[in-house]
Design a protein that fits this description.
The chain folds into two domains: 34 residues; 169 residues, Beta Polymerase, domain 2 (2-Layer Sandwich). The protein is 27% helix and 26% strand. The chain is built from four helices and ten strands. The strands form two sheets. It has a six-stranded antiparallel barrel with strand order 4-5-6-7-8-9. The longest helix is centred in the N-terminal third of the chain and has 32 residues. It is globular, with a radius of gyration of 29 Å.
Length: 241
């Protein structure tokens, strides 16, 4: 089999034997070098065009920094940025953090999506945030709000694997800065979204209301709903930290 064998003797005119380069007894198997070169050029051109067509949406995605929202996301064009106190009041009333955490069933992505939707429905503009680590192959999802008096505020409402009691809460202000550890403080004790405030807090306050994750932040992507697309819900990367 293949061109390494001696040329076979044909017993029947209709018989076709194949080698590496095509049928031995097929006229197309005896193409000239020029013909084969033309075919290679044509194939190369086809591959280039195909790759170009396939890459167009990928390039546009990278340039625009936007992606279609997953099913279940809600937008509200009349939503506005809240004050710090308005955000805290909303979080205290919202029950997202009281949902039970279940690996791959209701994880951080679901908590972040639910809080986003509840905020938008309440008239509060919310962002969906993804965080990636230097020392861990997994990532994390949370939310962000642009408070009018204290600026960008990260909120992590990821719940517990246990059912919470009435007085328990998993709502936290998240402190995210590239190259530093990911930290949180309960919304009932945090008074600022600044990372320096968090560092001072964990040094001077009871650690019962704060946490410091061993993961080092590598990248933070903040996606806000792009209302310019009309009825299409898409999220545009407005800030990469």
């Amino acid at each position: 089999m293949g061109s390494y064998l001696k040329k076979p003797e044909m017993k029947h005119k209709g018989q076709v034997l194949f080698s590496k380069n095509g049928p031995l007894n097929d006229p197309r198997g005896y193409r000239t070098r020029r013909d084969r070169k033309k075919d290679k050029i044509a194939k190369l051109a086809y591959v280039k065009v195909t790759v170009f067509i396939v890459m167009i949406p990928v390039v546009l995605l990278l340039v625009s920094g936007s992606f279609p929202a997953p099913a279940g996301f809600i937008k509200n064009e009349t939503a506005r940025d809240p004050t710090w106190d308005e955000l805290m009041a909303f979080l205290r009333e919202d029950d997202t953090d009281r949902q039970q955490y279940q690996e791959e069933v209701f994880d951080c992505t679901h908590f972040a999506q639910r809080l986003h939707n509840n905020a938008e429905q309440a008239g509060i503009r919310a962002a969906y945030v993804t965080v990636f680590w230097y020392n861990n192959s997994t990532g994390h999802a949370l939310n962000a709000f642009e408070t009018t008096d204290k600026g960008l505020t990260f909120v992590d409402c990821t719940g517990s694997g246990n059912i919470l009691t009435e007085r328990q809460s998993m709502d936290k202000i998240a402190y995210v800065e590239k190259g530093k550890k990911y930290g949180t403080i309960s919304i009932y004790h945090a008074t600022s979204p600044e990372y320096d405030y968090y560092l001072q807090y964990i040094q001077n306050k009871d650690s019962l209301y704060s946490s410091e994750d061993p993961n080092i932040v590598k990248e933070v992507n903040i996606y806000w709903c792009d209302y310019s697309l009309g009825d299409t819900i898409a999220y545009r990367l407005h800030q990469r930290i």
